[in-house]
Amino acid sequence: MLAVYAGSFDPVTFGHLDLIQRAAAIFDRLIVAVGIHPTRQALFDVQERLQLLRAATAGIQGVQIESFEGLLIHYCARRGARVMVRGLRVTMDFEYELQIAHANADMSSQIDTVFLPTRSNYAFISASLVREIASHGGDVSRYAPPVVCAALTAKFGARKG
Amino acid sequence: MLAVYAGSFDPVTFGHLDLIQRAAAIFDRLIVAVGIHPTRQALFDVQERLQLLRAATAGIQGVQIESFEGLLIHYCARRGARVMVRGLRVTMDFEYELQIAHANADMSSQIDTVFLPTRSNYAFISASLVREIASHGGDVSRYAPPVVCAALTAKFGARKG
Amino acid sequence: MLAVYAGSFDPVTFGHLDLIQRAAAIFDRLIVAVGIHPTRQALFDVQERLQLLRAATAGIQGVQIESFEGLLIHYCARRGARVMVRGLRVTMDFEYELQIAHANADMSSQIDTVFLPTRSNYAFISASLVREIASHGGDVSRYAPPVVCAALTAKFGARKG
Amino acid sequence: MLAVYAGSFDPVTFGHLDLIQRAAAIFDRLIVAVGIHPTRQALFDVQERLQLLRAATAGIQGVQIESFEGLLIHYCARRGARVMVRGLRVTMDFEYELQIAHANADMSSQIDTVFLPTRSNYAFISASLVREIASHGGDVSRYAPPVVCAALTAKFGARKG
Amino acid sequence: MLAVYAGSFDPVTFGHLDLIQRAAAIFDRLIVAVGIHPTRQALFDVQERLQLLRAATAGIQGVQIESFEGLLIHYCARRGARVMVRGLRVTMDFEYELQIAHANADMSSQIDTVFLPTRSNYAFISASLVREIASHGGDVSRYAPPVVCAALTAKFGARKG
Amino acid sequence: MLAVYAGSFDPVTFGHLDLIQRAAAIFDRLIVAVGIHPTRQALFDVQERLQLLRAATAGIQGVQIESFEGLLIHYCARRGARVMVRGLRVTMDFEYELQIAHANADMSSQIDTVFLPTRSNYAFISASLVREIASHGGDVSRYAPPVVCAALTAKFGARKG
């Protein structure tokens, strides 16, 4: 069973990594897919995000890092994936995700959505929080792997300099 | 990968059956497990619920019907299941389920919880609603399979007679 | 357009009365219907609840007080009502009510559900809160009309005496 | 009883149309009103949205299409409408809508808000989802009427060309 | 400033204790008050719950353990407390608590409600979960202090024996 | 005990003022702190917001108005504050606030978050609603103090002129 875990990963956090590890243990193969949205502003560009993801997931078996454009459901169909994995942190996530899952189920009954609950100690971590804290020079080493922390320091140091 | 989908199934509805079919397509083997709660009142006894589940899932590959006592996480460990499957219908479900999932993750990091969103056309169907409608002589043939409808008629007919 | 506003009304509160007044202003005729649930325990019996409702709504044009057994949707069909009115106080109400509305829409496409939001100053008032406060001898005159306050005093006085 | 159903309708979907049909069946006359927000970006301009709404609602009795500027409650007062109709899809909608309803009730006690629950099979459809799917060349013919699908194709075709 | 933290504490958990410690650090004096509800079934009687609370909070400065009957707001007024402390674990808690807080604010503007968010690692722990796990012989030593674990073992051992 | 109540206050409303009064009654000293976010667009600049806050809180004992840059938790540490006060209006607020509170608790266990529930009659008032109503020439004198109403009139008059 091939599964896809898609997101922005701007940048990848310990919350994402926990989910990737657990999904990789449940499914035979897992594609972690960075969505390309040309009009949406991001801190890291797609190449940087892919690179950080590859570095951070180097030790996890059966994981493949890719990027995609267009609708996720079309991408899954092209790749032959039967399952889309989504993380659920809080109730607000859930309602939004449920709508997307229903729309995707309506567009393709062959591809299903599976939700994994974020571990309670990671539930408050989000990529936007990590960016916010790092932009003010705060310490994010408990929320993201060293390679990401270094990239954040480089990014915000470069901005300030 | 062996997964367990546990519940009361008092009685099994089309909402449950949709979930069983989808979970059976995702995982190699699926145990549908009826929880035995001696102090909780039910319309159908455990034997009846098992029988209805067996009849209703007869055509689905890789599904096994069982009952269990005690904590679900202990039962999964005994059966060697790595995944607990839960259906999510609405936001209120989610919050409760998230707490249970966190508690289970805390008790055993080896067994994970996976949520499948109920299809939107089944989201308003629950076993308690089916019991309520049937108890007033309403038609539940759009919410539960024929074998369950017959059992409900027998149950409530017998009560009235 | 005939509308039905159903509930337990155990007892009727200022929150209910605000809704009755507003629904009566929107629809030509409004039936306020007390649901009879033989197995559910109530503080006031059905006759008492009807009497309190009649006294409390005496001054409102176009309102009729009734009781009913069985499914609300069947009762509406028997009475020729096209609309069921429901009050929404908080988010938890909403999710539950939405499920019921979807089930009713599925059972009869001819009868629709209309929600009126409870005024913010009544949103914390519920019949169970009024019963709880009154049972401890608290003052509920800001939450329920005089006829109900008197009935509560009689009820809890009689219990204590 | 004159009611107003206001929104952006960028563009009108089957979810909107279901609500318009049901509201038109409940109230004597229904104004569907496109709000003009000069600073908010939209896919279709106000004239296009009015035209699509007129085409899509041509067969529904008692419906009138208009646009308005400023606060909805002031517009309703000018038009002599006693009721504002709002659709409720999910819980997040509800909380936001409840705040707006309370603010409007505070500003004018003569105009009430009435919520209609979106049918469960339309609950995941939103204008923004339709725009998103169409922008990637996806098929939206199950979510919006033919006249809207054609307009979307023209819009995104023109953008690509 | 004297504050009251009321609850059932059936039995006290690490979640409660975390809240007691934090509230005791914020307010000069803190009364932890066990509500007596003669009609509500509990695992531990009021005397046992008080004893477990006293043992578990022995090391925390400025904390006093009491029990009370009737409405909490009346009890706070009798004790001269200006603040009621409540823990918030999840969204469902919040809505319910908000209604109670609004009702209390309406009954006495002199006594305010203050919410403390449960730490994320305790958010899934509730007294009912602890009872449920312990009743099946599960290990609750990560959710409740030793004195409570011993009491649970005695209780359920006695029941089984 | 020194507490900090931070926000945008763009502009200060009766909802904010109610919270400031109640927090000032609970804690010895209260700093009301305007967050400076250079990239976020605001109607009033930081100096105007500070001035409106000072005018509006002139009569409340123990309150100090300041502004700050960077992370709130760092600012609280610099000022020696042990408590951050947050208002809770609705459920959606709560989930977001809970995440922030968990993140802050993780970053500093010495500084706690305390939530005060917005009074029910102010729950629908937000600064953005006040701006929206005022921008259309609506009357906001029931939602904000006279000094703010005058500033809004000046602001939107100046824009139109």
Could you walk me through the main structural features you see in this protein, from its secondary elements to its overall organization?
The structure is a homohexamer of 161-residue chains. By secondary structure, chain A is α/β, with parallel strands linked by helices. The first copy, chain A, has one domain: Rossmann fold (3-Layer(aba) Sandwich), CATH 3.40.50.620. Chain A is built from 6 helices and 5 strands; from the N terminus they run βαβαβαβαβαα. Chain A has helices at 14-26, 46-56, 72-79, 91-107, 127-135, 146-160; strands at 2-7, 29-35, 63-68, 83-88, 112-117. In chain A, strands 3-2-1-4-5 form a 5-stranded parallel sheet, with helices on both faces. In chain A, β2, α2 (46-56) and β3 form a beta-alpha-beta unit. The model of chain A has no long low-confidence stretch (mean pLDDT 93). Chains in contact: A-B, A-D, A-E, A-F, B-C, B-D, B-E, C-D, C-E, C-F, D-F, E-F. Chain A binds chain B through residues 1, 22, 25-26, 82-83, 88, 91, 94-95, 97-98, 101-102, 105-106, 112-117, 119-120, and chain B through 1, 22, 25-26, 82-83, 88, 91, 94-95, 97-98, 101-102, 105-106, 112-117, 119-120.
Q: Topology of this protein?
A:
The structure is a homohexamer of 161-residue chains.
Chain A: E1 2-7, H1 14-26, E2 29-35, H2 46-56, E3 63-68, H3 72-79, E4 83-88, H4 91-107, E5 112-117, H5 127-135, H6 146-160
Parallel strand pairs in A: 1-2, 1-4, 2-3, 4-5
Output the keywords.
Rossmann fold; 5-stranded parallel sheet; 161 residues; homohexamer; 5 strands
